[in-house]
Amino acid sequence: MFNYFFRDKDSSRHTLGYKFFLSTIICIFLMFVDYRFDHLNTFRQTISSLLYPIQLAVNYPLQKIVDINYWLTDHSELVQENKTLRAERLLNNIALQRLESIESENNRLRSLLQTSQRLKERILVAETLKVDLDPYRQRFLVNHGLNDEVYLGQAVIDSQGIVGQVIRVNAYTSEILLISDLDHAIPVSLDRTGLRTIAVGTGDSSRLFLPYLTSSADIEIGDLVVTSGLGGIFPSGYPVGYISSISFETERSFANILLTPAAQLDRDTEVVLIWPSMDRDL
Amino acid sequence: MVKRNFLIPSLFLVAIFLSILPFPATLKSFLPEWVPLLVLFFSVMNPERVSIFLALILGLILDSLSGSLLGQHALALVIVFSICIKFHLIVRVFPIWQLNTFIILMLIIYEFILFWIDGAVGNNVPIAERIFPIISSILVWPVILRWLPALKDDAGNRE
Questions:
Q1: A98 and A146 assigned to the same domain
Q2: With contacts defined as CB-CB under 8 Å, which chain A residues touch B86?
């Protein structure tokens, strides 16, 4: 079959014209349909399911190297790590106790105010596949897809903050766009003042840009920026980053404000997919 | 016979593996374009063993793996492949520096088509990052030119 389809026993120059024409038309048609409509989704999903073994084959040895590294770590190192982890867990548990009481208090107050109440979100831990996509875009693959009810536009976080959103769902994998991608923008608000704005990706995973704040905005270096929940994709209240630099240009009415993402965008090996539950009206 | 049938598919499989290997972000844009290099090599040296549909399928695989517009890499590969097939008899007797110049030209066309389609659909890709792969690809091209014919002969394909 390979011989029949992919090789030209007769001199390929004679039939090149019509084959070239056919292939080009196919490509242009595919691009047009892919750009304008959604009809190619199942086709894409089929291709990527077929290619999943290739990605796994690349991922597997690299994952094994990480595992072997674990296996080779010193006993004393492990004991040390275990100690610090225990200490951290204790601190986290203490903080969590306080948080739970605050949350229930918050819900009580919300019910008094007759506004909607926040429910717990469903989460799923996903491993990132160690394969590269297009190097010019800030994207990566995780090992959950349609089989785990991942959906388009789903928010992705790590232990520190917002990572990005799902932009393509395949059968067993899904593709995640980082908040630092050039084409990504996320509605945010300043934690200290509640000022709402939009954070735009710069293509550099260590920086985000706040283009729409005026020079007179009340903002300081180190301010925490959280998701505002507007736009309906990201649930509100998750940390996005910290203001890292503020500068003004006299000829522009907007300030140049950069923020450092809170999440470890380029070093994540595990991320968390969240299913925000609908706010329940009381 | 078996070896001969599987040489080209396995070479392309290796090229696909190489193109999705993860590297640090700073290194990423300096990596050579393995699949187009192989396509260029075979279309110039062994045009009877590859066809335009192979280029098309490989391009679609690259599209799917890189998450780009379906048909983007495929179109670039198909066009470059066709130019190579058209001129392969002339190119093959070129002195080595002319052959290299021809390959550079093909790589530039390939990257330009990708860049152009990116621009047409509104993806932001800095043009500098499309130039680095051309440089690194042309650096590994002599290695491919030197070692692939030997590999082919080992697989029992003396012409």
A1: no
A2: 13, 16
